């Protein structure tokens, strides 16, 4: 798997079957697809709801992912008084919170800074995209880049634990990726049934639709349900050999597929045309804006784990935030993407509060690491958005796991503050260092999961703690 500075760090996510193909499968289709085929439809894998007594209004998390790593110096942790070899060209601006300044790239977020908290003291130990992402998403302490994760990411773990605890009667999957964070994450040993329902299309396109969601023909929906019931009544397969629980995953795929096809609530949740056009404008009539608007719609519809990766053409030439000089002129790339990023994130945060979701829904915006405080210069490898023609010397910033920033909103937390600090150059954390395990423990805490006690059996059957050493960050623990 390529992850170097010369290539994008986002791989295309194959889409599920379209609606017509799905219906053509019919009675024989569920059987003829077989387990491998159904596993490819892992987007239909959220756990089937079990009866229980948990409250209907359960907490939820939206994670906005900046693949490749955002420059903290040029956004949330500016260092205006250092030399030009570090500082960059962007001025700082005041925010709504007295004494807190961020860069001019983020004027809309500056106006609502009282609604989020900046964590400036994140750090981890891995300098590569795979290992860095796996550290933050799953707590894997290994600093070596690996082709696939050893531990399940927090999203899959949360989906697994929420399904185990039951109490949910929503037809929608409980873990949805709107342009999902899947390249360096995954369910690992919790199983394919807890991977995301993946939405890989562009929600801003006028012809956007999510396949296999909500049949408009009620009679067709009834016929599909009848087919499934008949298939189950004829199913004489022996299940005693199912040592890996794969047949249980198959049942979950099938149950979720039928629920998505037959329940009108599912269709409505994904339908952005039901939004006021002014709201759509406020988020931005572009892929990122509509991704985050869809995330808000889904969380209102009861989905509890949502990720959205801000990648693709709006990032610039190589489609991510990996702003090496060979990829991008870091400053041109940040300018190119900042308006859409600022608009989409600020609209999402504002909406969470305006719609009364701020106690229940936690919003986290982060990448796997920051960028080098010291600017480097190298020849560009190609012309494009945010990059000069090939051979042109241009500025860039490389990988920097020793210090970076992320922002947190909602979740009942006390907002408007800053947690931690880096040194005068932004190279190292000097106050309130927070690592991946603290990051994970904080998210789990919001979801009502005690990460100090929970463990899941790995592939060898050994109980493995979902967090090894971290504790929830006190300032980011909801006040209720």
Topology:
Blueprint: H1 19-40, E1 60-65, H2 84-87, E2 92-94, E3 101-103, H3 107-111, E4 116-122, H4 129-138, H5 154-165, E5 175-178, E6 197-199, H6 218-234, H7 246-262, H8 264-269, H9 277-283, H10 287-300, E7 305-309, H11 330-354, E8 361-366, E9 370-371, E10 376-379, E11 393-396, E12 399-400, E13 404-410, E14 418-419, E15 421-422, E16 429-431, H12 436-446, E17 455-457, E18 463-465
Parallel strand pairs: 1-7, 1-8, 4-14, 5-6, 5-7
Antiparallel strand pairs: 2-3, 4-13, 8-13, 9-12, 10-11, 15-16, 17-18
Helix pairs in contact: 1-6, 1-7, 4-12, 6-7, 9-10, 10-11
Describe the structure.
The chain has one domain: Alkaline Phosphatase, subunit A (3-Layer(aba) Sandwich), CATH 3.40.720. 31% of the residues lie in helices and 14% in strands. It has twelve helices and 18 strands. The longest helix has 25 residues.
Q: Could you say which structural class the secondary elements and strand pairing correspond to?
A: alpha/beta
Low-confidence parts, pLDDT < 50 over ≥5 residues? 1-56, 220-247
Helix content: 25-40%
CATH topology assignment: Alkaline Phosphatase, subunit A
Radius of gyration from CA coordinates: 22 Å
Overall mean pLDDT stands at 84
Name of the CATH class: Alpha Beta
- The CATH architecture can be given as 3-Layer(aba) Sandwich
Number of helices: 12
Shape: globular
Summed up, the domain count is 1
Order of helices and strands: HEHEEHEHHEEHHHHHEHEEEEEEEEEHEE
The share of residues in extended strands comes to 5-15%
Give the end-to-end Cα distance, rounded to a whole number of Å. Answer: 43 Å
